[in-house]
Amino acid sequence: MNPVFGDLAPPERQAMLEKLAVTLERNARWAAQEGDDALGTAMLSVGAAILSVAGDLATTDAVLAEDVATRALGLITTFHCRHPQYPLGPMLH
To answer: Looking at residue 93, what is its pLDDT?
Structure first.
């Protein structure tokens, strides 16, 4: 487990997961606009799933929460490799 992520309090881990989820959902809409339906569908599904479990995951299993965050970052990276014209950074809410 990354010491920085592991040192976060559960509410901070939850906030990080939620920011990643909202970013995935935003990028999914952009992917759909670009006709990248498979990536868009994957990002939308993963983002919705993360939002539904972020609170529980952040408080009960920090290692799994980090793994989920890492995989979300992988999807975000794939999106930006395929569509570099879109801005980087999390969707803040």
So the answer is: 44
